[in-house]
Amino acid sequence: MPARERALHPSTPTAAADPAAPPAVALRRLSYAYPDGTAVLTNVDLTIASGERVAILGPNGAGKTTLALQLNGMLDGATGDVEIGGTRLGPSTRRDIRRRVGLVFQDPDDQLFLPTVRADVAFGPANLGLSGDALRARVDEALARVAIAELADRPPHLLSAGERRRAALAGVLAMEPDVLVLDEPSSSLDPAARRELADVLVSLSLTTLLVTHDLPYALELCPRAIVLDQGQVVADGPTREVLADEGFMRAHRLELPAGFNPLAA
Questions:
Q1: What is the CB-side half-sphere exposure of residue 94 using CA atoms within 13 A?
Q2: What is the pLDDT at residue 2?
Q3: Which of 43, 56, 122, 193 ranks highest by number of CB atoms within 10 Å?
């Protein structure tokens, strides 16, 4: 079978899922347009099983970030259905869905705004009513999961780029989400920080979506890749096969780093 055709077939989930359980994410005919009528997403159908790590790839303007924002209902005016763990997104479920889908923004400074890392990580669960020993335990666990427990009392602005990224991730994990969505997680990170973040993400055993232009990082972390272009899913398959299809990649303005061979990586 040609590589292009293989790239359009779904892949096996990262982790075995209960066949009777609803998918972690199910999108049906999801569409969204700007107020001027410009379509950003058009009839997107997508199913992600519990435990999968999936890369969302595509050129600039493909709709990747819009898709990520719509997973927890941050945009008004979308049509179609979004279901998280079998719960349909709607006015009565929006608050619950926003807790269950944790979004880590590209710029950690959009999420870190309090005097210490501990205070930032505690902010979300405290707003849910957690306090006292239960809140401290939740924060300590989140910091330990991202390996920055020793930085709890540091001001976020004094952390390195990689430490800030993991602090922002800890704040999301403290909300105990079912689905984790990261927008350009490797942006501005040096090689050591990239590796540290990758180690954390692999250890989490959470359904995870990586919205990224970093194709080698996608291959390293995500067995499955979904490619968006002009608001539509144009490929859904094993990441290695998608990246190795030179004609397909060129047609959708995706370029691997010079000398990088996905079949040899």
A1: 9
A2: 35
A3: 56
